[in-house]
Amino acid sequence: MKMQGRSIFTYDVYAPTTVTTMLRPRRQEGQSIIQEGFNIEPQVPFSEYIDIYGNPCQRTILPVGRVTITTEVQAQVNATKPIPSPPPAYVLVGDLPDEVMHYILPSRYCQSDLHEINMLAMEIAGNLVPGYEQVEAIRTWIHKNITYQYGVTDASTTALDLARNRIGVCRDFTHLAIALCRNLCIPARMTVGYLDRLKVMDLHAWFDVYIGGDWYTFDAVQEKTEGYRIEIGHGRDAADVAMVTQYGNATLQSLHVEASLLG
């Protein structure tokens, strides 16, 4: 399926401000980039690099004034990978590939080693078959028990905060899911990008888990994980996949996001 995504960030910049961005899509299996664009207005030079997770990143200095960053992409993408039958099994930690090991460790927003997280993980999935059944139980529990609402969490909100307050947005849902999975020694990572079927269009976050020797997508915001996605980046949590990180005096005034299927 051909899919397109577009995002426009508008900033007021009060002093020359260095920024790093993660706005261009990954090139990977299941996602073939047809065309893409990245533009900063007024035009300024920027450099590009690949981070330690394989995500394409950009770096520049924004000038003083109103600055607009626009990114567009068209890609040929597959539907969310279906869960096979029988469902993927738990992979023993001793059998995990080396490059997956850091996805079972606690991270800044996903405090998987805390007792409170452990108690919740055991309550939700402790008696289930390790692997897919546990992950889907965690995803379903979050979808049913956490209220989705803008404006009640911020960049400092963690998985533990959400476990206690039970209200937030996709970023928060994903952090809690990751923390609970890692507490059960199931590798989990945060993924960000475009999804074609959001009620309120925005850049979206979901989580991937490593079970059965492969990565599978789960989305706690959706009633059922489905749809088409363009992945921009993935990492341990939001600290690794921030769309824009600024080092100076600038204020985001607006963010406009579009995502749609082209057939």
What is the topological layout?
Layout: E1 2-13, E2 17-21, E3 31-41, E4 46-50, E5 56-62, E6 65-77, H1 115-125, H2 132-145, E7 147-148, H3 159-165, E8 167-168, H4 170-183, E9 188-195, E10 204-211, E11 214-218, E12 229-235, E13 244-247, E14 250-261
Parallel strand pairs: 7-8
Antiparallel strand pairs: 1-6, 1-14, 2-5, 2-13, 3-6, 4-5, 9-10, 9-12, 10-11
Helix pairs in contact: 1-4, 2-4, 3-4
Can you describe this structure?
With 263 residues, the protein is an alpha+beta fold. It has two domains: 2-78 and 242-261, Immunoglobulin-like, CATH 2.60.40; 93-227, C8orf32 fold (Roll). Helices cover 17% and strands 38% of the residues. Helix 2 packs antiparallel against helix 4. The longest helix is centred in the middle third of the chain and has 14 residues, at 132-145. The model has no long low-confidence stretch (mean pLDDT 96).
Notable traits:
globular, 4-stranded antiparallel sheet, 14 strands, 4 helices, 263 residues, alpha+beta, 2 domains
